[in-house]
Amino acid sequence: MIYNPLQQRICIGEMETEQLFNIVPEFHLKNVKGWMRRQQNRLDIRLYAFCKDVIQNGFVNPIIVWYSDRDNEYAIHPGMNRIMLNRVLNFPMKAWVISHDINDYQRLGKVFPGIKKLKLDKYGNRDIKLTAQHRTDNRLFEIVFDADRILPRLRTEQNSREWKEVQQRAGFYVWSGGEQIAKIGSPTDLDHWVVKDVSGIYELALKYFFDYGVANAFIHRKTT
Questions:
Q1: Close Cβ partners of 27 (under 8 Å, ≥ 6 residues apart)
Q2: Comparing C-alpha atoms, which of 77, 126, 68 is closest to residue 99?
Q3: For residues 67 and 131, what is the distance between their CA atoms, to the nearest angstrom?
Q4: Buried/exposed 94-109: b ≥16 CB within 10 Å, e otherwise
Q5: Residue 126 — φ and ψ, nearest 5°?
Q6: Model-level pTM?
């Protein structure tokens, strides 16, 4: 039997996203049309239940940054939608950085200044459950944290009822790339908005469905 423990070991550290984004490039989701197409069966979760939960409880789960030290490459999953929403809200938010090819915390701290080790129990142990998810848009499995399943849990009877009610009262048209991407809720002829990226959709959801004060940083009214 060949046994190499490094193949099954990962280095994990935690830091504030404000610190993280001083190190890694800023992330955007500019393909609004593609994002909207993927969310058609869960707009109730994305634009209502998710926003409601974050307003009430903050960001429960950290975003996950997968980092290759050898290739100097970053990938985020899950967490991109949290980033897009938080560009509007500016709430405190944690990030976990995970690397397969960093094998000591001294190196992790050099690459990500300010990062900290995860808290352990009094015996120096900690169990983190992982699961593999098969996504419909590829043939690979993605490793995510087993507890990080916040969206399906938010589809409750109460949230579904509230989502139907708010859509009857308000709504908006989404424009991107010179075309109308979506009609959400019950908009009037004045509710046509051009969005810069997916953060703009979250800004509109906060504005129309929660009457949440936002700065119009990622949206502007469409003019004829």
A1: 76, 80, 83
A2: 68
A3: 19
A4: bbbbbbbebeeeeebb
A5: -165, 130
A6: 0.90
